[in-house]
Structures are given as C-alpha cells and as structure tokens.
C-alpha cells in the first residue's frame, strides 16, 4: 500500500506544479523562483478581504444603530454582541493588523501588477468577499433555525415571527450577493480564458512554432490537435480551475465557521463526521485513478473525431471527384468507434465511482441520528439544538465531502491541466535538442548561399542531398529538377529556413525578401483584398492598384464575379487551382521580394499563361528558384540543379541542359 500512496502523492505534486505553471502567469509574471510570492499575495488578498468584511459590517451596524437603535437591538442584537466581543478582544486588533499587512504587500509589489494584472486580483477579492458574506449569513441561519424550532415547540408566537422575519431578511440579503458572485466568477473566467488563449496563440505563432509542432508525419510529435487545446481545453481549464478553487475556499470557510458550532453541540458527532469523510475520500481518490486517465484519453479521441469531420468539409470536392465517400465513412466511423469504446469504459468507471459516492453520502445520513439519539432520548439535548446540529452537520458534510461530490470534475480538470501544460511545455522547448532539425540557423545575406550542406528529413537519418554547394545572386534564376522524392521540396524548405541543416552553412535574404509559393497556394480566411495583400497590411494598396494587379495576372473574370474587393468567400472551394496560382502570383507582385521560391507554382496553368507570369517576374528583376518538370521552364532560368536521387547532384547551365534530361 505504501508505494501506491507514494505514487498518489507524486502525481498530486506533479499536477500542482503544472497547475501553478498555467495559473500564476495570469496573476503574476511567472518564474520558477517566485512561487512563494504568489502564495504570499494570495494570503495578502485574504487578509485584505477579511479586514474589509469586518470594517464594512462594523460600519453598517453603526449606521443601523444610529438610525434605529430599538429595531437593531431586537433583530440584530446577536450580531452587535459578536462585533463588540471582536473589538473588545485581541481578534479585532489582529484582523486590523493582517489587513494592513495585506495592503502593504500589494503596495510593495505593485510593480508586479502591470499590464492590468490588478484586474483579476480585484475581481477575485470581490468574489471571496461575497463568499465570506454568504458563509457568515449561513452560520447565522443555523442559530435562527435553532431558535425558530424551539420557539415553535414552546408555542412562542412573538419569538417565532421575529426569527422568521430575520430569516427572510437573511435570504433576501444573500440572494443578490450570491447572484453577483456568480456573475463575477463567470466574468473572471472569461477574462482569464481570453488572456490564456491569446498567450497560447502568440506562443503558437511565434518563431514558426505552429510549423514545428505540426510536422509532416504525425508520429514525429506528441502534441495532437493544437486547435482543440487552445479552444476547448482552455475553456474547460479556466472554468474548472475557478470553479474548483472557489469551491475549495468555500468549503474551507464553511468548515471553519461551522466546526466550532458543531463542536459546541456534540464533539462525538464532529469527530465521527471527520473520520467518516476522511475514509470515504481516501477510498474514492484511490479508486478514481483510472477515471483520470480515461478522461484524458476521451479529450484526445473527441478531438480526433472532430478533426476527421473537418477534414471532410475542407476536402469535399476532392472526395467527391474520387467518389471516396465509403473510405471517408470508414475512417470517420473508426474514429467514432474509438470515442465510443473509451466512453464505454468511462461510463463503467463513472458508474462504479458513483456507487461509492452514493454509498458514502447515504451512509452519512444515519450518523447524526446514531450519535445524537441518546442525548435527545435522555433529555440532555433539546430539539432546537438537534435541528441546529443537523444543519451544521449538513454544511460540514458538504465541505468535507467536496472531493466526493466533485470527483468527475476533478478528473476532467486533471485531463485539461495535462493537455494544456504539455502543449505549453512543448512550445517553450522548441529550441531544445528534440527540435534541432527544425530550428534553422540561417544567416542574413544579399544572396542565397549553401556551402557543403546536407539536406535531410527531420527526425530521420536519411540524407536526401549531400554536400550541396550553391550560390544564387540577385537577378539569377535557378530551376531544380529530379525524380519524385529526391528532395526538391526539402531543399526549398532548407533555403526558406523551415528545416535546419546538420552540416554546412546556409545564408538567405532576411524576412520579407524571400517568398515561397507552393503548388497549392495558401488561401486566408478573409476577403479578396486580404488574399492579394497577404501577409502585408490590406490597407497598404489602393483598389485601383489591386485591380491592376489582378489584370496583370490574367484574372479579370475574378473582378467581374466579385467587384467588391472586401467580399469574403470560401476561396479554396470557389477558385480553381489555376485561379489560386494566378492569385498567388498577384500576391507575389504586391509583396515584391528579391527572391521567390516556386514549388510547381504554375503546374495548373497553360504554357502561355506560365510564360506571361515568368515574364512579369523578370520585368520586376525578381530572382526565382523553381521546382518543376515542364521543359518550357528551362527558358526562364539561368541554370539547372539536377538532383539525382541517391544524394548526388549536379549544377548545369540552362543553355546546355538538354530537354530529354528534364
């Protein structure tokens, strides 16, 4: 049993470290060394809230006493007496001192709360203030229940109605506080989700991380479905983190306020409840380990299933041309089968856990009757005390059975933590050895230079091109040829800085001076104007300029179909591949780089249009590196790099390159 308990502790501390790594940056700048500062600021906030509650309550009672002393004494005499005892004793001085200490902490470390980091602390403080207020009201209600019960048994009409009035006022007061607490909690969750999503998106799009974490072969990365992690997992994490944290704090408050009351009524009942809750909670946590893993897997399988459906939508025309509905149906149903299979296991384990939950909860119902039966039957306890004890017992039970009630949520929360933290860690470790094949060191240059370079596939040892020596100066054009799979596109990735070379030196023009156009151009989720200007600012060019460029690349029909340049459409579906390739050349003309890399970028065009587009590049003195198989391409280039396929290569002047060799 000892090793198992040790493993549970290790898992718990591991999850807490991951939780802190995800949580703290929203509230404080994150470093490994300032974890204690984060805890200190949380305590400081609690000190500030506790002092604020005491000061507000004291001020409110003073205001009520000055306006109506008799009514205050009649209905709120107990509250007045309690406040008087606090201020007469050391407790009032202690709370005031802690309040001042909390304020001093926030003033001392105010530099940590830049970039609006004070906003979540303020909202969280207000939420905790409301939790304290509601728990204080609940504690008072237990005494009201006792007094009402005794008054009804004694048939004391005046006391019964007076206490019922006070009870109604308590409920009326608690309702808006609780409602505002729910609103602020949802608002804080939304702000946190927005911040965390933006942070993950920025990290994902920084330094081509999105490309490195999504290599050509899925088994080369352990980060599945980044889109789902940024959307669904972020939403679940922030929602569950706040819900669980506030519920834990609420449970602690409930326990703290009610344990003393229940101890004053029956020590035996209090001890029995704590022991019973401890045993049931331990058994439940021990039995729920499998549930945590199943929830983690379920998130992944659901994301894979959803991606399969998105894939069909994005490739609907290609699938229709192939009549591939049956094959696509099999694949989607396979993914659905994985979801269903895992969910079946999840249902079984959830049912087992719920049996344990229900057993623990049902068993706790008997404890008050078993423990308090003798004192009531012997006359040592009146029925009002028994009723109060039951209310206190139920409140304490709710706080002590917190894990029992929330075990399903904890399992889903654990899965969200694991997936988000794993995603975050992978993005932060891009420069590690694991990703050395992607993190390219390319020196800025006025030309493209490859000196003794080996071209290889990331994560693999197969070298496609060995000891490549190549220099492309401005206004020079190179055609790359060779059999399929010999490494032509891989070479372009090395030149563009997407892949790294483990040997030799690569120099390329700086960002913006080299543009890559693949065979199937990238179409953005935007307007026609944004398609043309990408990745430049869409307001940089006038409408007349954009229309002139479309005319230049032989797309006048596009202007006739969509005269409004700001119209947004599903462009990859509406435009043919030939139209997309011509649109990409228009984008190229607007960007005006010094070098352009064309990976079969004219494969869907006729020879006449291809010639026209290459002449446009020549007029603008753009140097191009082309990959293609058409013999006509030789006419637009100065030299030909022929990749043989066994790692060897040769560089030949285009004028002497024979058409039969192409």
Structure, explained:
- With 662 residues, the protein is of the alpha/beta class.
- It folds into 2 domains: 116-428, ABC transporter transmembrane region fold (Up-down Bundle), CATH 1.20.1560; 443-661, P-loop containing nucleotide triphosphate hydrolases (Rossmann fold).
- 67% of the residues lie in helices and 8% in strands.
- It is built from 21 helices and 10 strands.
- The strands form 2 sheets. It has a 6-stranded mixed beta sheet with strand order 6-7-8-4-9-10, with helices on both faces. A 4-stranded mixed beta sheet has the order 1-5-2-3.
- The radius of gyration is 35 Å and the shape is elongated.
Compact description:
With 662 residues, the chain is an alpha/beta fold. Helix content is 67%, strand content 8%. Strand 7, helix 21 and strand 8 form a beta-alpha-beta unit.
Output the keywords.
AAA+_ATPase, 2 domains, transport, ABC transporter transmembrane region fold, 10 strands, ATP binding, 6-stranded mixed sheet, alpha/beta, nucleotide-binding, Rossmann fold
